[in-house]
Hints:
Layout: E1 7-8, E2 15-19, E3 24-26, E4 33-34, H1 36-47, E5 72-77, E6 83-87, E7 102-107, E8 116-117, H2 124-135, H3 143-148, E9 155-183, E10 188-211, H4 218-223, E11 233-234, E12 244-246, H5 256-272, E13 280-309, E14 312-319, E15 325-327, H6 333-360
Amino acid sequence: MAVMQEYKCPCCGGAIAFDSATQKMKCPYCDSEFEMEALKAYDNELNNQQEDNMQWDTQAGSQWGEGETTGLGTYSCKSCGGEIVGDETTAATSCPYCGNPVVFMGQFSGDLKPDYVIPFKLDKKAAKESLLKHYKGKILLPKAFKDQNHIDEIKGVYVPFWLFEADANAHIRYKATKVRRWSDSSYRYTETSYFAVVRGGNIGFERVPVDGSSKMPDDLMESIEPFNFNEATDFQTAYLAGYLADKYDVDANESIDRANTRIKRSVEESFLKTVKGFDTVVPENTFVNLSNGQAKYALYPVWLLNTSWQGKNYLFAMNGQTGKFVGDLPMDKGLFGKWFAGIAGIATAVTFLITYLTWLF
Length: 361
């Protein structure tokens, strides 16, 4: 029995067939044409696709030694469920995530001891100055928000991070296009050529951070990266004196998906830099195989300010090592209305002036 090879159009996915007039494979749906050899190579590439193999050794952290937790207590937030660690000098405090009072729970115990800690390098004064600098130039920021903000409630918090590192072997297929345009006296023409671009190679990753706190927005933590790990040191409880430390509630195994996503995105972006000469390039298939994958547990220094405005919470964060500051700000709708009206008025005036000059001359 004869078996017919069926090819799918790389452009639209429709079934394509040989066209005797052009001696090429042609798609009846989008009229794309393909050389037979190029189509065979593309089909072989599709048949050789593999699934990602991203396995990790997540034996991060270690057990606390005898006497290491002496003087540490845990505090629980009844509002958001956050649990933080403070030293014995910590008096009544508030949750760095939602601003509500926290309740002393007792002596700290359980969980893993961090492998590393990056000590705070910048103090509260620097955090306050960065917040005020963050306000500058924001013409739509409500004045009352600046006046009523609880600047003194900025808190230094050691945020738990899982640090993933591995060697990656990757194979990526990009869908690329080249567009050619021309015209004659009657028509304008556009010709789009499609290419399957393949890249492969090895790339190493060191200490890809994923925060281990469900209360900390991941995008906020990624925004204050990078941290300089060269200044990290083996963990000692002495570094916690005068600061709070968040207890992780997302373990290393639960953080793997986010680590894999970050690694896969970085691989695609790194390999993409080698694909040149095309108008568009889009990753179509990515295969990543990891080896020597392992995770470590670290505490990174972050200054946090949680404040509310008209029923909405705003969380600001500053990298306690580099000073990078991020956070959303509210907008004064009244000022925005006046600003928009002013812009609209200027646009109307410019339009009127152009119309008048055109009529005049």
